Amino acid sequence: MDNLLLDAAAQNFEAAQDLAGPAQSQRMALGLMQVARAVKGDSRSPALMDAAAQNFEAAQDLSGQRQTQRVALGLMQFARALKR
């Protein structure tokens, strides 16, 4: 587990509270990507966790429904990768 990445993710989630609209969603997607990468080595499926991180990264460049769909896909992969 990478504590530096987890700290960076927490800072991005904190910063997202002061934003709105696309900027807020992009900052949250960045934080999710950082969390996924931070815990990748501790997950049951590192490849699936990496796929989740890639979807969160891609979501930063999207907006609206497409961004929401990509984040939802990443969260599904994230949850399955953590499942024991």
Folded structure, characterized:
The model has no long low-confidence stretch (mean pLDDT 93). The protein starts with a helix and ends with a helix. The chain has helices spanning 3-16, 21-39, 46-59, 64-82. The protein has 4 helices and no strands. The chain has one domain. By secondary structure, the chain is mainly α. Helix 1 (3-16) packs antiparallel against helix 2 (21-39).
List the helices and strands and how they pair.
Elements: H1 3-16, H2 21-39, H3 46-59, H4 64-82
Concise account of the structure shown:
79% of the residues lie in helices and 0% in strands. The protein has 84 residues and is an all-alpha fold. It is flat, with a radius of gyration of 12 Å.
